[in-house]
Amino acid sequence: MTTRVTRSTYVLAVNDLESTARWWVEKLGFEHWIEVEGWAFLRRDNCYLRIGHCVDAIPPAKLGDHQFFAYVELEDVKAFHDEIAGPGVDILFPPTDQPWGMREFGVRTPDGHRIMFAQDIE
């Protein structure tokens, strides 16, 4: 028997919890789900984040190629790109059709984490 994955949650360590959570809400349209001491739990549809306040965390920009943490698939990646594109959102590249059948673009958070957003174009 197999079991079905019901949700995927990403955990990020950040130096400034308040400003990071605010960025996810104001720039990427997430909402606060739960707040507890030292944590902000955010969500947008079926994408969940647990952002932890870690003052001594190594900034992702110092991790080299290991800055990517998620690949989130959407119904309409161009519409999402157009929604979030603007001041304060570092888009690494615009929606681009890839040879593996996905249209995708990347975003770098103010903390230096990178996330990919994609849509199946097959």
β-strand percent reads: 35-45%
* Cα distance spanning the termini: 30 Å
- Order of the strands making up the biggest sheet: 1-4-3-2
- The name of the CATH architecture is Roll
Number of strands: 8
Number of helices: 2
Number of domains: 1
Shape: globular
Mind telling me the CATH class?
Alpha Beta
- Kindly provide the radius of gyration, computed on alpha-carbon positions and rounded to a whole number of angstroms: 15 Å
H/E order of the elements?
EHEEEEHEEE
Q: Helix share of residues?
A: 10-25%
Decide which structural class fits the backbone. alpha/beta
Unreliable spans are none
The major β-sheet equals: 4 strands, mixed
Averaged pLDDT: 92
Within CATH, the superfamily carries the name: 2,3-Dihydroxybiphenyl 1,2-Dioxygenase, domain 1
Description:
The chain has 122 residues and is an alpha/beta fold. The protein has one domain: 2,3-Dihydroxybiphenyl 1,2-Dioxygenase, domain 1 (Roll). Helix content is 16%, strand content 44%. It has helices at residues 17-28, 77-84, and strands at 8-14, 31-36, 39-44, 47-53, 68-73, 90-97, 102-108, 114-120. Strands 1-4-3-2 form a four-stranded mixed β-sheet, covered by helices on one side. Strands 5-8-7-6 form a four-stranded mixed β-sheet, covered by helices on one side. Strand 3 (39-44) and strand 4 (47-53) form a beta hairpin. The protein starts with 7 loop residues before the first strand and ends with a strand. The model has no long low-confidence stretch (mean pLDDT 92).
